[in-house]
Amino acid sequence: MNAELIGTWAGLVWNALDEAKATLALKAIKKATKLKVNELYAALGWLAREGKIAIAETEADVEVTLL
């Protein structure tokens, strides 16, 4: 994987969160972006490192929010 590709995936995740205007669970992000699990995690890592998202673990799932 190269950085450009991961950046593209990060953009898909960011757009899904922005359009939802809400916190989304990983399943919802995966469904909205159609990314594979490893692609989703790479994108989340990119966004987290840039300080663009907050990740919270709940009893049922992991939820992601735009900052």
Low-pLDDT regions: none
Task: Compute the CA-based radius of gyration.
Answer: 11 Å
Number of helices: 3
Which descriptor suits the 3D outline? globular
CATH class: Mainly Alpha
Instruction: Give the ordered list of helices and strands.
Output: HEHHEE
CATH fold name:
Arc Repressor Mutant, subunit A
* Spatial ordering of strands, largest sheet: 1-3-2
SSE class? alpha+beta
Helices and strands in order, then pairings?
Layout lengths: L2 H18 L3 E2 H8 L3 H13 L3 E5 L4 E5 L1
Helix pairs in contact: 1-2, 1-3
Comma- or semicolon-separated keywords:
18% strand, alpha+beta, single chain, 3 strands, globular, 3-stranded antiparallel beta sheet, 3 helices, Arc Repressor Mutant, subunit A, 67 residues
Question: Can you describe this structure?
Answer:
- The protein has 67 residues and is of the alpha+beta class.
- The chain has a single domain, classed as Orthogonal Bundle (Arc Repressor Mutant, subunit A).
- 58% of the residues lie in helices and 18% in strands.
- The protein has three helices and three strands.
- A three-stranded antiparallel beta sheet has the order 1-3-2.
- The longest helix is centred in the first third of the chain and has 18 residues, at 3-20.
- The radius of gyration is 11 Å and the shape is globular.
- The model has no long low-confidence stretch (mean pLDDT 96).
